[in-house]
Structures are given as structure tokens and as C-alpha cells.
User: Fold this.
Amino acid sequence: MRKLASITLFVLLSFSSFAQGNSSGKTDIDLKLSKLEWTGKKLGGEHYGEIQLSAGHLTFTKNKLTGGTFVMDMASITCADITDEKSNRRLVDHLKSEDFFSVVRFPTSKFVITKVEPKSTNEYTVTGNLTIKEKTNPITFTVKVTTMNKQTIAEATLVFDRSQYDVKFGSQSFFENLGDKLVYDDVDMTVKLVLRPE
Assistant:
């Protein structure tokens, strides 16, 4: 009887550990280690820089990505390719102005996952709602999730059409005959979300 009780206890403990290791869970991102890089292209060139994340988390069920969100601090936008301080500040101020992201009125943007489909062992097709200037549109892209030394990282590159978010400056979607003032509508974002260790 004692042997049977010991076996039963072992099975129960093993099942409990398995269940805990595969339960649903929300994990916050590390704001210092996570990164978002943007690239905007114009006729004859491009500019790029970073935007800081102010909040975010990912949700996993049985070790599989199932949801999440991240929030962008639009006032933190920087330009990395212009070395002249005055020119750099001029561009950044322009990006924050009403011509582009209207940062005073819309200080944050966000992305919320609405659907996740596994592609391979560590890749997912993610669909979600991107909100900029209080305008929301769906977007789909591939997310790669890797874990090494107990550190989980989710990485993705996505492209959004700024004209869908009322970002009009130099856009051929709103203006004609722009010539060398043309700024392309597509904006590239590379996102690296580093999760806090549990």
C-alpha cells in the first residue's frame, strides 16, 4: 500500500509540473533590451532611426505564441543616419509635427495581435491591428521566436502604408506632381522584443 501511494504521489507531482510548464502565461517585455527600428524611403534616398517601446507583453500557451501587444512612444523617435546635429533635429521635429505623426496629439501608437498561425517550430504568421494617430488597420507578418540561455526573443520585420494612417507629407496617395519631394508610403519596421525572464 505504501509503495502504491508513493507511485500515485509521483504521478500527481509529475503531472502538476507538466501542466505548470505548459500553462497560459503573459510575459512582459524588457523595455531596455527591446528595440524598434524604422526606415522611411524617399526619391533618391532614405532615413532610419529608432522608436522606444513604452509597454508590451507576449502571451504563450503550451510554449506556443498566442497573443501579445506593444506600445510605441512616438515622442522618442530618433534619426540615426544624419550626423549634422541641426539637420538631424530638423528632421526629427518634422516627423513629430502635423505633417507626419502629430506627436503632441497622438503620443503613442500600438500593435495588438489578433491571430497567430504556426509556420514552423519557431516561426508564426501573426495578424494584428496597428494603430497610429487613432487610425487602426490590420497587418500580417512573420514572427520568429527563439530561446537561448533562458532568454526568449521575438523578432519581426513588417511594412505598413503610412497613408492609411493619415500621414500625408510627400505622399502620392494625397498629392500629385511631387517630383523630388516624393516620400514613399511604405515604412519598414524591425521589431525585437526581449522578454523578461520568468
